[in-house]
Amino acid sequence: MTTTVFAALDFGPVWEMRSELLSGIGTMALVSVVSFAIAIVGGLVLAGMRQSRSLPISWAGFVLIQVLRGIALYVLLLWLFFGLAAQGGFQFEPIPAGIFALALLNSAYLAEIFRAGYEAVPPGQKEAALACGLPKRTWFGKIHLPQVTQITLPAMGNVFVDIIKDTSILSAIGVAELLRESQRWAQFYELPFEFYTAAAAIYIAIVTLVTFGWRRLERRFSRHLHTAPRVRRSRGLLFGIGGRPSTTTAS
Amino acid sequence: MVFAFDTTVISDHSSELLDGLLLTVEVAALGFAIAALLGLPLALAGRSQSPLLRVPATLWVGLARGVPLLIVIFWLYYAAAQEGLFSLTAFLAGALSLGLTGSGYMSEIYRTAFSAVPSGQREGAAAIGLSRWQTFRLVIFPQALRTAIPPGMNVFVMLLKGATLLSVIGLADMFYTAKLVAVNEFKPFELYTAAAVLVIAVTLVAALAAGVAERRMSKGVRR
Q1: Least Cα separation, residue B201 to chain A (angstroms)
Q2: Is domain A23-240 given the CATH code 3.30.70.270 in the classification?
Q3: Which domain holds residue B131?
Q4: Residue B105 and residue A84: Cβ atoms within 8 Å?
Q5: Under an 8 A CB cutoff, do B65 and A241 touch?
Q6: Complex ipTM, two decimals?
Q7: For chain A, N or C: smaller number of CB within 10 Å?
């Protein structure tokens, strides 16, 4: 039975539709990079709100972060697209709406990462810098920021990978990214197995590439260190994913 | 924008909506159970000396964490059925895809938790003559589980959010119901808002519980 099952596989149409799938990958890349960039700005704003000395602002930041972390992307998209738009009698453009939703939800995760990174630098660094007579600006730019960057980069990479994977959910509102294209042609050719397997393989390849690229970036940002980077990793270079004991972006 | 919010359409259909919400929670819970059970042997295989165990486990974790959940759902529901491998109900396909995706994350969590147990514990257990299995069952595993619970709850929140996707394969969850009623009654805003608020409330409670658990754990074990 199994032999006949797999003999029927036909990946020809997948190859024929390569330019459509490629354009899906392009949309995915555009959406994920733009939403990641906006999410970084949003995350900085939210983290800044939480650090604020004014109690109402700091509380607003806290509540916003908690609420945004509880919202599922698909739920937000459906509400925006089918609820809010119907009420207002207008139509959202799929790509901007998708970018907005992705950036909004992920800014909350990034805010927590930035805050944790900011607090992870030992206070002695600041005391020593100021005791040496460095102005506060120099301390921040030359001492504090590089260390914060180096500490937060691995967790930021996880968020970026999550964003890339989550662009697949935008297919629900009609963004022509990789999954939407695969879905379209899977239905057209009636070959869901071939197209979804190909899509899964492409996602794995992209996630692996991004993970490796990101590690290079991490190494670059910790090149001034004589010791090994503080990021702990163990085995699991296969796929580039197994080796990082990360739980930060699990939700 | 006119904000005439009609609450009667929600109260009329509240029992159907809540049934749908329950279904989402159930499928997420079953998925989490699968993930928690699969994750443990995966983590142990990933720590194994033998590449025969280690390599497949690493591959599995890479696949589970690298492939988007929605693709796993489509793959298990449409692709496998087309090839005549197996055909699942929407509920089972959903629970299984959540379980498979979650197993990669759970395995990483167990792995971190195991390596967080101080090596003195293992040495101590060996010194008082416990066997390897006894050491694992009585000494290492209980301590690792403590560390694994808060991040494990985060995985549950992730799966709960993922479970909202399952209306795409026709699981009659809250959004599926909301869509049907919205089409019949021409009240999409009310229904989608109600559905969104309800499901967000559930994930928020779970996320807050995970946050509390995390803070408690980070206070450190009492000595």
Answers
A1: 8
A2: no
A3: 8-218
A4: no
A5: yes
A6: 0.82
A7: N
